[in-house]
UniProtKB/TrEMBL annotation:
This is 4-amino-4-deoxychorismate lyase. The keyword Lyase applies. InterPro entries: Aminotrans_IV, Aminotransferase-like, BCAT-like_C, BCAT-like_N, Class-IV_PLP-Dep_Aminotrnsfr. SUPFAM superfamilies: D-aminoacid aminotransferase-like PLP-dependent enzymes. Keywords: Lyase. GO terms for cellular component: cytosol.
Length: 307
């Protein structure tokens, strides 16, 4: 079940369309060139999470791509229409709940519009969340490292590569996931050509230490530096803000593969999957199952206070 609401000046609350019928031109540059941007957020019991953070990141991606998109209040009106329509349809079909909560995926999509024109195409899509995401949160992931194909300073040297923007050009990311599945793994952590940890195809990377090199207890969270061209994680940012209040030390890379293997726990974190522990990297276990489970429970509880 999917709900589509197009942003349309003639419809201030958004224009609801039939998701089973054609709704976008074949000449749209989002289709022909992947020339567009998107955001994905989780909605729980009809309430989208971190909506302002996602709207701000969408606007940042649009600026990076020199793409004109509707203002935030227009998006918010369309989001409300789409989520309400999905909730009404879900009630008729007895939609599945996750941990007793009604969850769905809200996507914001904007393209450069049909070729030869100057009007962007923008819409909100709401659909059911994949049960596999909840399973990954509970059971964890086996991950492999893959080189992304560029050095960590390429975002500064070549801004036209659009690193750090959430674009529709996800073919490489999806190919990386298919390669991981062929190798018997669940997901990927990208590394740069100069051997720094970047991000996952659809997630941020997070690691934790609960003791220092001399064995003294600590509570430290680390994520890679943003200046490597990775996408700023809205969920990682929310967790860091709450974890600081809970007494955790925070740090931003550089992170190497050796740092991941030396960590007491590693996670892939995103708006939809939330906090998914990494069990193994290239076959090597990260920490212990007991530590991963304990830290995941603690940080998930902290994250829940921010959402």
């Amino acid at each position: 079940m999917t709900v589509l609401v197009f942003l349309d000046p003639a419809h201030p609350a958004g224009r609801l369309v039939d998701a089973s019928s054609p709704a976008i031109l074949a000449t749209d540059q989002g289709v022909t060139r992947g020339d567009g941007i998107f955001e994905s957020m989780l909605a729980v019991n009809g309430v989208p999470r971190k909506i302002q953070a996602h709207l701000q990141r969408l606007a940042g991606s649009a600026r990076t791509m020199d793409l004109t998109i509707p203002p935030a209040d227009v998006w918010q009106a369309a989001i409300e229409t789409a989520v309400a329509a999905f909730g009404a349809a879900e009630g008729q079909h007895s939609g599945a709940a996750v941990n007793g909560e009604k969850q769905c995926v809200v996507k914001l999509i904007a393209t450069r519009g049909p070729e030869g024109g100057n009007t962007p195409t923008a819409w909100v899509q709401v659909s059911a969340i994949s049960p596999a995401l909840a399973e990954q949160r509970a059971k964890g992931l086996d991950v492999i490292l893959l080189e992304r194909g560029y050095d960590s300073d390429i975002a500064i040297r070549a801004p036209w590569l659009l690193l750090g923007a959430k674009t529709l050009s996800y073919a490489v990311n999806m190919a990386a996931l298919r390669h991981a599945h062929e190798q018997g793994a669940d997901d990927v952590i990208f590394t740069s050509g100069d051997s720094l940890v970047l991000e996952g195809p659809t997630s941020s990377v997070l690691l934790a230490h609960i003791s220092d090199d001399s064995g003294v207890p600590v509570k430290r969270l680390i994520t890679p530096h943003l200046d490597t061209g990775i996408l700023p994680g809205t969920t990682q940012g929310a967790l860091f803000a709450a974890a600081k209040e809970a007494g955790w030390e925070l740090g931003y890379g550089p992170v190497t593969p050796a740092d991941l293997l030396d960590a007491d726990a590693v996670w892939l974190i995103s708006s939809l999957r939330l906090l998914a522990p990494v069990n193994t990297i290239d076959g090597a276990e990260i920490g212990t199952a007991a530590i991963r489970e304990r830290l995941s429970e603690e940080l998930s509880a902290i994250l829940a206070t921010t959402l």
